[in-house]
Design goal:
Length: 99
């Protein structure tokens, strides 16, 4: 095995990790009240909204967390039973569970 083989294996492994990211549907409302539905994974949400991954964990529907409202420097994270949202000065993002 040469030097390039390790790089190829590492690249394949990183591309595998990217494919395994789970995207969820979110309803995004901007400051004018215009809404749209988008499928976003955690990394895309963290790029749009300035919050940490640990704050997104309380919004995960597969995990059981008690109701909470987290105030962060640039966002408010809301988890109230069936209402899961991220509020910023520019937009509100609601987790949308499609039935």
């Amino acid at each position: 095995m040469g030097e390039g083989d390790g790089l190829i294996a590492e690249t394949q492994m990183s591309s595998f990790k990217k494919k395994s990211a789970v995207s969820r549907s979110w309803i995004l409302l901007d400051s004018r009240g215009q809404g749209k539905i988008m499928d976003l994974d955690k990394s895309e949400i963290m790029r749009r909204v300035p919050i940490n991954a640990r704050d997104l964990r309380i919004l995960d529907p597969l995990l059981s967390y008690p109701s909470a409202i987290l105030g962060r420097e640039k966002a408010i994270v809301v988890n109230l039973e069936h209402i899961k949202a991220i509020i910023t000065t520019n937009e509100v993002s609601f987790f949308c569970r499609m039935i």
